[in-house]
Amino acid sequence: ELFRHHIVMNSLVQTRIVDGLLMLIEKERQGDAVDRTLLKSLLRMLSDLQIYRDAFESKFLQATERLYGAEGQKLILEQEVPEYLHHVEKRLDEEYERLLHYLDPSTKWSLIHTVEKQLLSEHLTTILHKGLDSLLDENRVTDLTLLYNLFTRVKKGLVELCAMFNAYIKK
């Protein structure tokens, strides 16, 4: 309790800890190797002190939203649909790895929802207009399967997919 009160509840110390954690996670998301054991220990400490949610989680989810919002905007314009879908799948896998290795399980739903929203939900129509017809024309079953599996994860994903598929059939 003394440690919690004098060290971690000190706003300057708490801010430095959280900023350091966010910086390490950002580095890992950029492909750098980080000390996951250190991340796990620090995040477990925040959890044990019952300040994980208030001190860390909201800032972490905001950083996640900013990162994947910008990344989605950029890559949807630069990449072909199959490449983009594989990127989304890779990013989701990476976030599941973070959950497995060091993030608190309570963060799971919010984290995955944030990634899906920024990389998929925000771009459903663009993905379909840009790539569905060619995937169907070229009978790219593997890419269509990935498209379907990703779209089932987000609200209105299947509704949009069905509408575009119906339009394709009527052509």
UniProtKB/TrEMBL annotation:
It comes from Triatoma infestans. Signal peptide: none annotated. GO terms for molecular function: ubiquitin protein ligase binding. Belongs to the cullin family. InterPro entries: Cullin, Cullin_N, Cullin_repeat-like_dom_sf. PANTHER family: CULLIN. Residues 1-171 form the Cullin N-terminal domain. Pfam families: Cullin. It comes from the Eukaryota. This is Cullin-4a. GO terms for biological process: ubiquitin-dependent protein catabolic process.
